[in-house]
């Protein structure tokens, strides 16, 4: 089984090309293009993670018995990577089947050290104008102390450790997800701040 999760302000059709190619390569695979959070990607990431977990459980219950599934893999894009990580603790019953977590440009460490000033301005605007809770969480602005923020707590939540393969892909040309954040690396700005 392969779970595809779209990004911020996206929908399941954003992952359709990947689904079609996977269907040709692996015709035996069950593929779920998540739609649980369409129209709601501005909300709390924890709530979106729970919705995704419930969607996965329902898909398994409606499609086949869980015992028939050999492996479960995730291919996630942008915010979908963080949502999927928030869903994992709710899917512990399937943890023995988790195989690959493949993340494309997901801001796993948030936007605290974004190199793009235009994106920073856009984030500030969306947080203020649209009252986007997820963007506040991704900016680590949801708590006065960063150690109380959602992303910090998510970093110690179980889930990724259950996978046999974990791959974080990023690009210097990506204007939205900071390069180091998508690769889960400490950036130079954070190192300079800690000294």
Q: Report the C-alpha radius of gyration, rounded.
A: 17 Å
CATH top level of the domain at 2-110 and 159-177? Alpha Beta
Q: Name the beta content range.
A: 5-15%
Task: Based on the coordinates given, report the CATH architecture of the domain at 2-110 and 159-177.
Answer: 3-Layer(aba) Sandwich
Q: What's the story with the biggest beta sheet?
A: 5 strands, parallel
Number of helices: 8
Could you tell me how far the N terminus lies from the C terminus, measured between alpha carbons in angstroms? 45 Å
As a percent range, the share of helical residues equals: 25-40%
Q: How would you classify the helix and strand content by structural class?
A: alpha/beta
H-E string: EHEHEHEHHHEHH
Q: In a few lines, what is going on in this structure?
A:
Helix content is 38%, strand content 13%.
